[in-house]
Write a structure and sequence with these properties.
heterodimer; A: 278 residues; alpha/beta; D-Maltodextrin-Binding Protein, domain 2; 2 domains; 10 helices; B: 227 residues; mainly alpha; MetI-like fold
């Protein structure tokens, strides 16, 4: 009897502490509205780069995982409240987020680009640089950044709420543009299509496959691809801070999956380019 | 609880208060005229007036406001070229227009029923008396039916105004930065929904408290006992 009580007490403590234990089912949450990272297909099931990748990672880490859907808005508070154990939703590793949660190493990264309708006057906009890394700008990059900001002056730019892309716009362009924020990327696409916003801003990994589809055939990426600085250090899994051990397990699995080319293969399948981080 | 987030939330949400007030007052203004027209049509003996009014009220009372707003905003975006050809896209392009249109149609439908109830509560004896004094139909409506109907409808209408204040929060789903829109932004900025949420809630409470007082003082002024 005493033993049983002790076991019960131990179980209770484990449940209350909230930290995921070995042998437990690891509940991963994704947004399900950010193709090709994660999205619902026509059959209503989740698919995408991260859906393929989590299965591989869990197999490598010998973890039993489930994947569920949760809204992007409030995804970090929900993690902290213990509604699930891991965020795998194309979330970039930033210093700001690191104050609240811990991250695994990154498994993928994608530059951010501005996108317009092909009929837009901005469609022919080009600058010298193909990409700008905001962490340490050289002279050519600074020039290209200034030219991009000048070209976007007075425009209405749409962006998803709670993203690094919104942070970038606020930091670099706030006084020059009108920002419209959307709960999902799909709503933003509809407004870019109808012309309510002049420009949309999101990751290249999102746009590239969309351009091949009917919904995105009129869209065009303009200017350079942005990375680093407010865009952080690539995309990783987000976990509660007291789950560092589990995060480390996933990091080891990600290392292995990148080393043997699995992440590249899955990235090629979903993005059409190798977005894996070496 | 983070005091710093609360300190930042108060001025940020206060700045969005005029947006919420503008959404409420503009749509209540247009909605009231729409409601009078719809209520009178509903009471008309002519089918070509009362049937469309009935269908309008039925549709807008029986579907969620969020769906109406999404249909008007994202739906109109699908018909951009058609709307452009009749010169309407310039209006539908603006989130403000779509928000006020859907709020106006929605409150118009509810308020029309409140007004209809008020009109129907006016006793026939008063109308007979008016007729006996030689008033025309229009005079009867203006002098007797309408003022009495309004007094009768006031408590119900006050309720509708309060509901409208809360309904405006849905405008944040179509990119308008009202108090709810700002709350969402702060919440996703700090990954902490609780602090801005209580501030936004407090602002809605205060706004509706003022409305409650205004409506009840209007009720007192119009009530029979104190006149």
């Amino acid at each position: 009897m005493k033993k049983m009580l002790a076991t019960a007490a131990l179980t209770a403590v484990t449940l209350v502490s909230g930290a995921a234990q070995a042998g437990d089912i690891v509940r991963i949450a994704t947004e399900g509205a950010y193709p090709p990272w994660n999205a619902l297909n026509s059959a209503g099931t989740l698919e995408g780069f991260e859906i393929d990748l989590y299965k591989d990672l869990c197999l490598r880490a010998k973890l039993e995982c489930t994947m569920e859907q949760t809204p992007w808005e409030g995804i970090i508070p929900s993690l902290k409240a213990g509604k699930f154990d891991v965020i795998m939703a194309g979330m970039s590793i930033t210093d700001k987020r690191k104050k609240k949660i811990t991250f695994t190493r990154s498994y993928a990264a994608s530059p951010a680009v501005f996108v317009v309708d092909k009929k837009s006057a901005l469609a022919s906009f080009t600058v010298g640089a193909a990409k700008i890394s905001l962490a340490n700008l050289d002279e050519a990059e600074q020039k290209a950044l200034d030219a991009t900001i000048a070209a976007l002056k007075g425009k209405t730019i749409g962006v998803q709420k709670g993203t690094i892309h919104l942070n970038f716009l606020k930091e670099y362009l706030k006084s020059d543009i009108t920002i419209r924020t959307y709960a999902t990327q799909e709503q933003l696409d509809l407004d870019l299509q109808s012309g309510r916003v002049d420009v949309a801003f999101a990751a290249m990994s999102y746009w590239h496959p969309l351009f091949q589809k009917e919904e995105g055939k009129d869209f065009l990426a303009i200017g350079p691809g942005f990375s680093e600085g407010p865009f952080g250090a690539g995309v990783g899994l987000g976990l509660r801070k007291d789950d560092q051990a589990l995060a480390d397990k996933f990091s080891v699995a990600i290392n292995a999956a990148i080393a043997d080319g699995t992440v590249s293969k899955i990235a090629m399948k979903w993005f059409g380019f190798d977005a894996s981080t070496k | 609880m983070d005091i710093d987030i609360i300190k930042e939330s108060i001025p940020a949400i206060a700045q969005a208060l005029p947006v919420t007030i503008a959404l409420v007052s503009i749509s209540l203004f247009f909605g009231f005229f729409l409601a009078v027209i719809v209520a009178l049509s509903r009471l008309s003996r002519h089918n070509f007036l009362n049937k469309p009014a009935y269908i309008f009220v039925y549709i807008f009372r029986s579907t969620p406001l969020l769906i109406q707003m999404f249909l008007i905003y994202y739906g109109s975006g699908q018909f951009r070229d058609e709307l452009d050809s009749i010169g309407l896209w310039q209006f539908f392009k603006e989130p403000w227009f779509c928000a006020i249109l859907s709020l106006t149609l929605n409150t118009g439908a509810y308020t029309s029923e409140i007004i209809r109830g008020g009109i129907q509560s006016v006793s026939l004896g008063l109308l007979e008396a008016g007729k006996a004094c030689g008033m025309s139909t229009i005079q009867l409506f203006r002098r007797i039916t309408f003022p009495l109907a309004m007094r009768q409808a006031l408590p119900g209408y006050g309720n509708e105004v309060i509901l409208m204040v809360k309904s405006t929060s849905l405008a944040s789903t179509i990119t308008i930065m009202d108090m709810t829109g700002v709350y969402k932004e702060i919440s996703s900025d700090y990954f902490s929904p609780f602090e801005p949420l209580i501030i936004a809630g407090a602002f809605y409470l205060a706004l509706n408290y003022i409305i409650t007082i205004a409506v009840s003082s209007a009720e007192k002024r119009l009530s029979l006992e104190t006149r």
